[in-house]
Design a protein that fits this description.
Radius of gyration: 36 Å
Shape: elongated
Number of helices: 8
Number of strands: 21
Strand order of the largest sheet: 5-4-1-2-3-7-6
CATH class of the largest domain: Mainly Beta
Helix content: 10-25%
Structural class: alpha+beta
CATH architecture of the largest domain: Beta Barrel
Distance between the termini: 125 Å
Length: 384
């Protein structure tokens, strides 16, 4: 009896196993399915698609770029260059026929960037972009082109103002550079290497950079936003698209960006532009002195207990400072109550004085502080 029960159990088990295998191979067994029409080569059901999430405006600077880019222009300049005939190099030819005028003209083209700052067509750029150019063409972001004329230049800050005559010009908004801090995100907009309008991103690396021996008056914004050849004169803007500076120079041993770029603050650019539009050139104060930095060695030799101020190394005879009694060896401490930290500070404070006015300057002479009232003169133009 037991043997028959085991045989029955094994038979049932085998039958169930065969049924399960058959059902797995033919899952539609015993079912009826409606007929379907299917195109050759297409799946019966389309594969599910995954759509990318929309870009969050909090993680993008497209709004800032969109506001500033239309007001940044490309500047193309050309300069006529006259070439001499090869015979001009022959000393015997020159001896008999002299040195005639050059015979052939050629054009040298260069490029840069600029920023439209007025609906009247005034554009801020670098002086070295338009310096000595015979022809200037401006190309807007919307592909419009126009000839430009130079309104005025200021080589001592490397700024220039040019003008175009077009309607409905986009104008950039001037920012507040005095509120900018190291670490703020900034965008550099320009035309590097002539590839077309380009936006790069970085941060403000430093403020008030000077003693770089790039310009006479220096107060640069340093940034690691990529600035290359062709970016000169372009815009450095904040995350709202407001102008903070005019891109001017880079530190590089190869000619390409290494993350050390410099921009002229918009406060300086605005002051220079207003002076150019008013007087045709920049008017600055002058008192006729040469200065020298206070070094630890000089402080020790002079017996100074301070490391701030500027030593007057020379005084122009019959100049404003000389007439007021300033002497070599004096240490300039303040200009109209504003402290003089170093030579660069002194130059900038004096340059801001109005020619023809009076200024009170405090000097340290033989351990005694003295106030001198100086009639401010007009700074002579720089030597070319």
């Amino acid at each position: 009896m037991r043997r028959l029960w085991l045989l029955f159990a094994q038979t049932v088990t085998i039958a169930l196993a065969l049924y399960l295998v058959y059902y797995a191979v033919k899952p539609d067994f015993g079912r009826t399915r409606p007929a379907t029409v299917q195109q050759l080569g297409t799946p019966a059901q389309p594969a599910a698609t995954i759509e990318a999430a929309p870009v969050s405006s909090a993680n993008s600077f497209r709004a800032a770029a969109g506001r500033a880019m239309p007001a940044v222009v490309n500047i193309l300049t050309s300069k006529a260059v006259q070439r001499k005939h090869p015979l001009m190099r022959d000393p015997y030819f020159k001896r008999f026929f002299g040195d005639p005028q050059e015979e052939e003209d050629d054009d040298q083209n260069s490029l840069g960037s600029g920023v439209i700052v007025s609906p009247d067509g005034y554009i801020l750029t670098n002086n070295h972009v338009v310096e000595a150019a015979d022809d200037i063409e401006v190309v807007l972001a919307d592909a419009r082109k126009a000839k430009a004329k130079v309104v005025g230049t200021d080589p001592e800050t490397d700024l220039a103002v040019i003008k175009i005559d077009l309607d409905k010009l986009p104008v950039i908004t001037l920012g507040h550079v005095d509120q900018a801090k190291v670490g703020d995100v900034v965008l550099a907009i320009g035309n590097p290497f002539g590839v077309g309008q380009t936006v790069t991103m970085g941060i403000i690396s430093a403020l008030g950079r000077n003693n770089l021996h790039i310009n006479h008056f220096e107060n640069f914004i340093q940034t690691d936003a990529a600035i290359n050849f062709g970016n000169s004169g372009g815009a450095l803007v904040d995350t709202n698209g407001n102008l903070l500076g005019i891109n001017s120079a880079i530190y590089s041993q190869t000619g390409g960006s290494v993350g050390i770029g410099f921009a002229i603050p918009v406060s300086t650019a605005k002051s220079v532009m207003e002076s150019i539009l008013k007087d045709g050139h920049v008017v600055r104060g002058w008192i006729g002195v040469e200065s020298q930095e206070i070094t630890p060695e000089l402080a020790q030799s002079f017996g100074l207990q301070r490391d701030s101020g500027a030593i007057i190394a020379g005084v122009v005879r019959n100049g404003p400072a000389d007439k007021a009694g300033m002497k070599p060896g004096d240490i300039l401490l303040s200009v109209d109550g504003k402290s003089v930290k170093d030579t660069n500070d002194m130059i900038n404070l004096i340059a801001q004085l109005q020619p023809g006015g009076k200024s009170t300057m405090r000097v340290l002479r033989k351990s005694r502080e003295t106030d001198l009232v100086i009639n401010v003169g007009k700074r002579p133009p720089p030597r070319k």
